């Protein structure tokens, strides 16, 4: 099966990852448009043995396009959504612009692939932290309903883009050489430091990243009653997020059952060696990988009747947390 595809925001971190994944996964296409801002228009990109010219992203960019992979920012997604839909293409959008739109399916292919067919021209890619959490939680939830989730995230600089990644590198070098670190891409010192996720704090005291995880999980699970609370922080890791996940199930659950389920679940790799104290690490295991790594599988002894489980997970924010999830959605579409 082949199709005509466009990548909006091709020069960004996720846009470049789209290209790598298309080649790695042998994603068949008849034509490819590389779209970006006017600043990048006219530049050349070598890809799969051919040279492509970047075109300026405009309302006229989508004629003849079947799938438009968007990672150009929420304002651009909103600006060009009508043009994409009216052209007959499907927008798979990596921003938060349409995630909570009732008309736009919010999809993690390992969780709710059936929602893809319900699209009216727009499919939303969930937040990276939501994806990383739900890939391992969903197969457990299917067999034993999760009633409550308590999540703490440890989010890499990659979540704030290439400028933040470069800033972490520079700050690290500056501090080690005795220079004062400069903060531009992120509001606070990223190197050798941890701070509250750099999204707006709401009236309830939660930042936007935390509320995204709450609201998106409920939509993806189609369960408005599931109880979720989150704490999201930025840590001095270059790429790949980590999460501590506490689950309270409807019925008793033990670590052996959790391992058995997860070892047979798509997109999940279990690293849980207690004897060697070896569990998932973002830089060692998840960086550049497609799967979500799970370990520290243990009983939460504070929850009665054996209904509580703790997990530690790591996943590459740029791959499964963004580009890969979108490409998987495109792969699952009917044309």
TrEMBL record:
Pathway: Amino-acid biosynthesis; L-threonine biosynthesis; L-threonine from L-aspartate: step 2/5; Amino-acid biosynthesis; L-methionine biosynthesis via de novo pathway; L-homoserine from L-aspartate: step 2/3; Amino-acid biosynthesis; L-lysine biosynthesis via DAP pathway; (S)-tetrahydrodipicolinate from L-aspartate: step 2/4
Active-site residues, as the UniProt record annotates them: 128, 241
Domain Semialdehyde dehydrogenase NAD-binding residue range list: 4-119
Key words, A-Z: Amino-acid biosynthesis, Diaminopimelate biosynthesis, Lysine biosynthesis, Methionine biosynthesis, NADP, Oxidoreductase, Threonine biosynthesis
Binding site for NADP(+): 11-14, 39-40, 158-159, 317
Gene3D superfamilies in the record: Dihydrodipicolinate Reductase, domain 2 (3.30.360.10), NAD(P)-binding Rossmann-like Domain (3.40.50.720)
InterPro entries associated with the record: Asp_semialdehyde_DH (IPR012080), Asp_semialdehyde_DH_beta (IPR005986), NAD(P)-bd_dom_sf (IPR036291), Semialdehyde_DH_NAD-bd (IPR000534), Semialdhyde_DH_dimer_dom (IPR012280)
GO MF annotation: an example: NADP binding
EC number: 1.2.1.11
SUPFAM superfamilies named among the record's database cross-references: Glyceraldehyde-3-phosphate dehydrogenase-like, C-terminal domain (SSF55347), NAD(P)-binding Rossmann-fold domains (SSF51735)
Binding sites annotated in the UniProt record for substrate: 155, 208, 234
Biological processes, Gene Ontology terms: 'de novo' L-methionine biosynthetic process; diaminopimelate biosynthetic process; isoleucine biosynthetic process; lysine biosynthetic process via diaminopimelate; threonine biosynthetic process
Binding residue positions for phosphate: 99
NCBIfam families in the record: asd_B, PRK14874.1
Known role: Catalyzes the NADPH-dependent formation of L-aspartate-semialdehyde (L-ASA) by the reductive dephosphorylation of L-aspartyl-4-phosphate.
Oligomeric and partner information: Homodimer.
Protein name according to UniProt: Aspartate-semialdehyde dehydrogenase
Source organism of this protein record: Sedimentisphaera cyanobacteriorum
